[in-house]
Amino acid sequence: MNFKTKHNKLKRSEKIIDVFIKYGLDYFIDRSKLKLLYRIKKIPKGYEAISLPKRVRLSLEELGPTFIKFGQVLSTRPDFLPPVFIRELEKLQDEVPPFDSFQAKEIIEKELGEPVEKLFKEFEEIPVAAASLSQVHKAILPNNEIVAVKIQRPDIKEVIELDLEILKDMAGFINRRSENNWIYHPKLMVEEFKKAIQREIDFTNEAHNYEKFRINFKDIDYIKIPKIYWDMTTTKVLTMEFVGGVKINEITLPEYRDIFNPKEVAKRGACIVLKQIFEDGFFHADPHPSNIFVLPPATIAMLDVGQVGYVDENIVKNGAKLLLAMMDKNLDEGMRCLRALGVLEKEFDENLLRQDFTELIDRYVGIPLKDIEIRKLVQDTIGVMVHHNLVLPSNLALMIKALSMAETTGRQLDPDFNVVTVGKPFITKIVGKRFSSDELLKRGNIFVKDSIEFIEKLPQDLTDTLKKLREGKLKVIFENKELEKLTREISRLTMFLSFSIVIASLIISSSLNTKMDTGLIIFGYPIQSIINYVIAFFLCLVLIIIFKSKKNK
Question: Measured between alpha carbons, how far is residue 112 from residues 28, 42, 115, 116, 149 in Å?
Fold first, then answer.
């Protein structure tokens, strides 16, 4: 770190200290390293009456872009902070004073290599929106197409990098100070934020996200994804089709009563989120009302897609099964899903965890499915996990947040809206897909292939193991000293296992092939299936004969 960077870090640290002391948040500051003036500085009066979560939010807003974004990222992680803090951080306003339009034009010209007057027929100097990382100007291209030009704030990248260093220092201090008494994870908070902000600061990432969403929703006419102008897009400038409309949470206002259809918007909005998660595996991670616009009467436009989440088949499948398990009060299935999701990788007391989950599920016994709130159910589930010091995979946390936002927004638009009712077909489709004929055929073929590979490798693996055993390179402790007898027994069991795997593979393959047109049919069955059944039958006879002969010895 050079002298200039150190000096900037010192100045920025002083600003942060001032704000934290102002809001009574000196707990997060290592006072032993402060100047005497700061150590004796008193907390100003008037803030004692304000709740701690609200003081945290106000301090983040005052500290500017990096800390606002930090709070917004934390609001998506209910396993990082208590619910009361999450609710307060969700109120963070990503609206800050705009920077000068002269600077905006300078950045555009530097990035695109042409004067603004040549690039645009018209360029509105007053931005239509200003956020912590950027601001948006409306413009008209020479061909009369209306576009939105998103421009990154000057020097914002350097500010973020400096603030990240300070946040890392603060997280380390809180971690040391709290020792084992703090069940949350300050260092992990900063790491998650660092990954999120570094993706969002590069506008080409957001442009690619728009293109992915355009492809995924190409067959759905009630969603609008802005077109990207790639020849006018860089890491600091994003030019896209201008989309008008009204924020989704404002369409119920009296002036829009006869213009929009809130009930239909609620349903469509939920379907859009559910499709992204359970079908596409790629979703908008921040479907905040400010990022979702509606065009009359019920067309939904998705904006500001810098934050996205990815879910693989494992997360989708087990996440869906977990939701069903919790709604069906099936504890054993819920525990299996949590383990498959990687939530239970850390050490924990399983008996206590099961007891807490049993009590949680009992709260929902007797509640009709249509009356269950996903947000409340998820919040209670995460509360149990946090109590046992368990952490959600980041994309699973984002997925939960997106579902919760869909439910909250839906209920604001339609009091009778229930995301469980809308979402259950998506969830059951994912779970049911596991047992479809195509999926069974796929898994059966994989099983057969893996079994054959196992059998092919088994003799060499056994040879290598026995060789290491003879050379003393494999240390094994046996109570029984009769090693030769034990080796023969292992060989016999291995042979039985190999025969069993081959037989099972042949039967599964034959059963699956009966559902497919695989060529010559005899007595209503494909010839390949009949051959496989015959081979399996003879192998069973051989296995029985060998077993009886060994038993008689």
Answer: 43, 50, 8, 9, 12
